[in-house]
Each structure stands twice: as C-alpha cells, then as structure tokens.
C-alpha cells in the first residue's frame, strides 16, 4: 500500500509494523542516527563486478573506490513530475525491501542528505536512446539516468543483478548490500526482444502469464507474444462469436484434452496492464488460415462443407483451413481482429499464417490479401510467421522467421523490399525443444538445443540476405504441446531465455560464450530464491 502525498513524498507505511514505521520516520527525520550498514556480521557472498549482468551491458567502467553500500537510511528518489519514473521507483523499493528489511522510502524531493538511489529522467549519455540507461555508482549513492521510464526500469534490473544474489530472498537476509562502483552505459542492439507463450495447446492462467512476465522482465525482454488460438483450443473471449471460448476453449480442450481455459477480455486487459507496468508489450496472435480447428469444430459455418470437424487433442499440424472463398470467413476474421485490436494497446497484431498445408498457395494469397488490410483498418501493424512473405506483403508487415535453415528466398526478398524480420530460428530459439535426448519435456523435431546452441548464433547473419538493418529483433517461442505447469515453463525457458535475451540486447562485439556462461552461472542462486525450476545444464558453471 502506498500513500501518495501532495508534496510528492511517498512512503510505504500503512501495512508495515510499528517498528518499521518508526524506522521510516527515523530515516526521514534523523538521518545521521542510524548506522549505514547492518550490525550483525554478514556471511561472505561473492563480490559482484560491474559487468556481472545478463544481458551483458554495452559499456562498463568499474571504479574500485566507488562501491555503494545500501543501508537502512537509503532512500529512493525519483524524477519529480514523472509518474512513470515514480512507478519504477516504487517497483524497485518493492523488489529490495523484503531481503534488506529496509524501509527504502520513495521520495520525489531533492537534496536529502541521505544516501540515495536516484532515478532521473534526462541527462544520460546520448547513446542510451529510448530504452537504455546510464548507471553511476559512487560511495554516496546510485544514479540511474534515462530518457524514458522504460530505460529507468532496465537500469533497475541491472542494479538488482549488481546486488548480492540474496536480494531475491523473500525474507530478511543478513548481508552487506554492496553495489560495485563505476559507470554503466547500456542500450539495446535490437528494438524487439520477445518471448512467446502458447496458450492454445495447454492454457496458461493469468497468474502463470504474469509470473513469466516477472521472470522475463529481469532480462530486458520487452515483448510477450501470446499464441491465443490453434487447432486444440481458442483462448481469448470474442463477444460476437461467444462459443469460441465456452466450447473452443472449454472442458476437454487442449493437447490430450487436459489444457482447457481461456482469457476473458478482463483477464487479457489485466495481463496487458501487468506487462506494461514492467515495460513489456503484449503481441496477441490469432493463427490463420490454418491452425483453426478449434474455431471450425465450434462453428460449422466456418467450414466449406458446413460440417464441423471433431475437436482435436493431438499434436498434428497442417490439416485445418478456413474456407477461403466464403464471405462469412472474412466477417468472422474481421470481428475477431476488431475486438482484439480494441483491447490491445500495443502496435502489433500477429495473424499467424504458418503451416497452412490445407490451403492452396492461391487461396493463401487471397486470404492474406484480404486479411492484412483488416489489421491496418483497426490500427494495428500485422506480424506473421515467415510464410506471410510468400504473398509480397506491404512493407510494414513484420515477418517472424521460424525456419531451421540459413536461406529463405521469400524472406530475403521481403527484407530487400523493406519488411522487418523477427528472428526465431526453431533450431536455436525454440524453448520447447529438448536440451538433449534425456529431457523429460519438449519436442525435438527442430533440434536438441543446449544452452551453447541457444546462445551460439547471430540474428544478423543467420539467414542470407537478412542483415542487421532488416532485423527488428529476436523472439524465443515456447510451444506448450508438452507443457502444463509454470514449473514446466520455467524448466524449458531457463536458462535459454536469458541467452536469447542477450542476443537481442547486447552488442555483437560482446558476444562471448565463456563470459556468458560465467555470468549465467551467477544467476542460479537468484533463480533458487525466486523458486525458478531451471535446467541445470552441464555446460554452465552454476554457483
Ligand atoms: C511448429 S513454429 C509450429 C507450431 C508447433 C511447434 C512445435 C510454427 C510457426 N508452428 O505449431 O507448436 O512447431 O515446436
């Protein structure tokens, strides 16, 4: 509970016990009485170094004299007048309070004599752009400067990793909370750094999705793509076609019939808002004209012969197709796009388009030429799996490459025309691929993907003719044919998701497996404290 005072002073006190309240008051009013470090001896934890961060920062200048010790009198000060900066400050306080036990009041007033973590809009190195930040650590405090709240948020995720791993504990730890001194200047290589969850094959609840948002936001992921519909289930409420969810997402749907459920519009908006607060934009996907059996088995009129096929709970692909020559198909598609666009503040709407093996090439072209303009009509930019490049789409359409090869003529032609590409090569970035033949979960059609494989490629040289300028970014899809629980999701995503996140954020010049595996190994104690059920790859020196 946060109280918002007129003068911009915010102190989280209502829910705190009387002792903590006293400490808050002491910290604010009697700055010099409290010691700057905890009295009890702290167990030694490995010292953090300025570059010990995933994804690797662009530039680090350590200063051994400048380490900052977070203490009971530390305050968090945010840029006056910026509600978004204040929200980042509040989130930082909430992250740091449980393990430190410090009050960490969030203030919007300048020149307190207390040691502070300052979140400042403006004044950063010119290179940081819209998502980067500059982080300065001296004996007196930490200053994060950025041009946007997103940049400040990214900076706070770095600060979190610069603190001892115990900072992730949910109860008070006896630790000396030292932040290594120096300066970091950091900004992303690519604008789009995505993850994807498949809600169709097994539904994932709002709680599971938001838990994943919490995890991926630590690694500066800024888009979460939700695969909302497929042959086995329809997972988003559409008012004009209500049975899509009650039947198409109802009992018995999902792979093996055990993944039912759907997001109401209220659920979806809650996910969008939760992600936005962590500077992650939701990209909703309606997969079509194939991967549509859930809709077609629910509404017979969506089939050319007017007969509803039975629901499917197996994992075959490529057998379903909307009826391309029927006007009703486009009324259906427009209803869905209109309703989904209306609850989607982000710029993208993904129309799938993959594996339409039951649609002829000519029909596929007809369909896309009708549907792509509908996405624009409702104010969104269309993205689609790379097959969409077969129809020479308008240049604002984004193609998501999921192939396993290193050549794709349609994709290269689209890139040459100016279409942007998101790289998700299935044999590198698909988080549902098994790590090795012994992995209990996952599939293996594209590859076994160990951590070094997930890390060992360059988005800008992966496909001939699709270079750095054509790349919007990277995405790590996680298909859920074999996944049911949050633990399952975590086991497949960690540690490979951070590898893809680093490919999306860090410079090509900094790409270095030895450095990455060491920094990754240092994440393990954090994941244990966060209860992340990660795969302990033998390739990584886990702490
Ligand atoms: C291919 S990738 C698919 C999905 C499956 C996935 C399983 C893509 C665009 N289509 O339908 O779930 O493989 O790995």
Could you explain how this protein is built, in words?
- The chain has 543 residues and is an alpha/beta fold.
- The chain folds into two domains: 18-186, Chitobiase, domain 2; 192-529, TIM Barrel (Alpha-Beta Barrel), CATH 3.20.20.
- Helices cover 30% and strands 16% of the residues.
- It has helices at 18-29, 83-100, 149-162, 206-217, 243-246, 265-277, 293-298, 327-342, 361-377, 409-417, 426-429, 451-455, 486-493, 496-505, 513-521, 524-529, and strands at 3-4, 9-11, 59-62, 68-70, 75-78, 106-107, 116-121, 133-138, 141-146, 177-179, 182-186, 192-198, 223-227, 229-230, 233-234, 281-285, 348-350, 381-385, 398-401, 421-423, 471-478.
- A nine-stranded mixed sheet has the order 1-2-6-5-7-9-8-11-3, covered by helices on one side. An eight-stranded parallel sheet has the order 16-13-12-21-20-19-18-17.
- Helix 4 links the parallel strand 12 (192-198) and strand 13.
- The longest helix has 18 residues, at 83-100.
- Mean pLDDT is 92; it is low at 1-44.
- Ligand TNX binds at residues 317, 354-355, 385, 402, 430, 432, 443, 479, 481.
Bound molecules: ligand TNX
- Portion of residues in helices? 25-40%
Residues in β-strands, percent: 15-25%
Describe the largest sheet.
9 strands, mixed
Q: What would you give as the CATH superfamily of the largest domain?
A: Glycosidases
Task: Write down the overall geometry.
Answer: elongated
Helix segment tally: 16
Which regions are unreliable across 5 or more consecutive residues at pLDDT < 50? 1-44
Helix-and-strand structural type: alpha/beta
User: Architecture of the largest domain in CATH?
Assistant: Alpha-Beta Barrel
- Using the CA coordinates, give the radius of gyration: 24 Å
The CATH topology name of the largest domain reads TIM Barrel
Instruction: Report the CATH C-level class of the largest domain.
Output: Alpha Beta
Strand order of the largest sheet: 1-2-6-5-7-9-8-11-3
CA-to-CA gap between the ends? 35 Å
